[in-house]
Amino acid sequence: MAMTPGWYPDPFSSAGYVRWWDGARWGASVLLPEGTPPPVPGQPVALPPPGSAPAAAPRQQAAPPAPVPPPGGYPPPPAGWAPPPAPPYGAPAPGRYGAPAEAPYEIASYGSRVMAKIIDSFIEGIVLVPVALWLLWPALTRYLDAVGADGMPTAEAVQQWVTDVAGVSLVLNVVTLLVTFVYEVPQNVRWGRTLGKRALGIRVRPRDLDSVGLTWGTASIRWAVESGGAALVGGFFTIIDYLWPLWDKPWRQTIHDKAARTTVVPHRRQP
């Protein structure tokens, strides 16, 4: 008669273990019945008669799970800790280096700034063009007088013309700086806008605190970077300066705005 499946004394050991019999073959694992001391080494273990009740399998208690250390080796948060609440809906999310992803107030359009600059340059040109012609007139007269009957100027006349124009350019740069300072800085300090910005309905304000207006120092820094850069580098600086708002985020500032920490915004007329 075949043995029924169950736990039986291990026929291959004399240490008091039991081994699982599946009805056809012995299993690979052995257990020591709970409360059963191991027999004396070398003492044979008798097999139970066929059909007898198998020995009870020992009950194994699951070991408590080992605590998992927090990542990075930091201690766990204290009891009652909770993550900070999420920002309210619609609040601007911070960008790189703590800058907001969007400006917290409306910024003037790029087209309005360009048109305002064209108007201001035209007004400044009303003063500067006659001055430039007055400064260049003696050099132009000498050059025309040196042209021969064949209509070709001499080499000496060309060299004199280049020298005269270089000297006039230096004086004209100084006059241009003076005219632009007198035109722009007092208006920006008093009202925050020049005549061109008035026509387009925009104004200059401090980037971070609008209630104080522009000081003489802020307005002078803004003018110095814009006009000084154009005088030293030429038109290349002016082009880069006024193209800068196209890719500057979120304030859409020019280079001279960044130097003075200012922005250009729409001007709201008081009712």
Automatic annotation (TrEMBL):
User: Which residue intervals make up region (Disordered)?
Assistant: 32-87
What name does this protein carry? RDD family protein
* Pro residues bias locations: 35-52, 64-87
What keywords are assigned to this protein?
Cell membrane, Membrane, Transmembrane, Transmembrane helix
Identify the residues that the record assigns to the RDD domain, covering every copy. 108-260
Any transmembrane segments, and where? 122-140, 160-183
Query: For the DUF2510 domain, which residue ranges apply?
Result: 5-31
Annotated InterPro entries: DUF2510 (IPR018929), Pra-immunoreactive (IPR051791), RDD (IPR010432)
Comp. bias (Low complexity)? 53-63
Please, which domain of life does this record's source organism belong to?
Answer: Bacteria
